[in-house]
Amino acid sequence: MPVDNPDIFVDFxxxxxxxxxxxxxxxxxxERIAAFVSRFTPVNLTKVGxxxxxxxxxxxxxxxxxxxxxxxxxxxxxxxxxFSYKSQYEGVSHKCGHDGHTAILARLASHLxxxxxxxxxxxxxxxxxxENGKGAEAVLNDPNFAGIRPDRVYALHNLPGYQQGVIVxxxxxxxxxxxxxxxxxxxxxxxSAEPEKGINPAYLMAYFTLTxxxxxxxxxxxxxxxxxxxxxxxxxxxxxxxxxxxxEVHLTLRTRNNERMEALTNQLLTTLSNLCEGTxxxxxTAYTEAFFANQNHPDAFEQVKxxxxxxxYAFIEKQEPFKWGExxxxxxxxxxxxMFGIGAGENTPALHNDDYDxxxxxxxPAARLFLAIIESHHS
Length: 379
Prior knowledge:
Keywords: Hydrolase, Manganese, Metal-binding. GO terms for molecular function: hydrolase activity; metal ion binding. By secondary structure, the protein is an alpha/beta fold. The chain has two domains: 7-174 and 293-377, Aminopeptidase (3-Layer(aba) Sandwich), CATH 3.40.630.10; 177-291, Alpha-Beta Plaits, CATH 3.30.70. The protein has helices at residues 7-18, 27-37, 98-114, 135-140, 202-213, 258-276, 298-310, 329-334, 363-377, and strands at 44-48, 52-57, 65-71, 121-127, 152-160, 167-169, 172-175, 177-186, 190-191, 226-235, 242-243, 246-255, 282-291, 294-296, 315-317, 337-345. Strands 1-2-4-3-5-16-6-15 form an eight-stranded mixed β-sheet. Strands 10-12-8-13 form a four-stranded antiparallel β-sheet, with helices on one face. Helix 3 crosses helix 9 (363-377) and helix 5 packs antiparallel against helix 6 (258-276). The longest helix has 19 residues, at 258-276. It is elongated and about 75 Å long.
């Protein structure tokens, strides 16, 4: 089958869909990608971030350096779809479209194989572990990435609920800062008939959860936007003669930018300290799955917009950021760049839903948009 046949990229996407792997476990995915894209003759094909891959096109050391990134990991969600390429792994499936993002980047590689890069270099990054926020950091800390120093970085995400093929972007905040706070409460167990002889953290946990709600500002247009979502809580044991002495509350925090996240975190910790004072309960805090806000540089935004319009694509300049986190934000903290969205269809299941599937009609137009961005930057 010829390389320029778009059907092979749909087949590749569906192969990835059949064999999904969660964050930090994408070893088979890495092998499948490497085997598929090697035919597109990159200058270098390098493992990066443990389970990711980096392709290089162009060898000129002087000139622009562009990085295009796609994420490759799946989610721990059981698939309910029953099509021929459904997930073969119980409890794991591609419910965010990273299989499609990977296919888009593979299609872009095929275009770059046909168009030699005369000025500078282009890198295509198949990044692992986006869903848990560890992949971007792993890539940036990898010695194989250290010497690249791109002056432009780009990525996309498919967007259910938007017209198929429409490009959605905005300058500045595109996706929020996100992190999860884990609070442990340590009191003292006692007989449930004599709770006064112990220290039960149940009421303090409840007060903290209710008080955290008061710190919210759910207006997405506000610079002070803050969303605090209770995720998990546990208390004691299922032993009805024991008054609990231990509990946990997990919250996910979202703000428009990193500065607001720091302020919100400080507010929460102060609230927690005040509530615990004099109770005899000790607390410990930890953070997990942290995502930096994705900041679109105005010049990179203009490149996305102008390239989309040049191709005749519909374009929406979004007024407020999306509310989901994206670890590409770590790249835009270090380098000028932009993330944009491409509409997946107005009546399609939402991201992270068990009946979601990527729209294969997006592979070709998205790859061509990336190609147009590269050409505008390397002309």
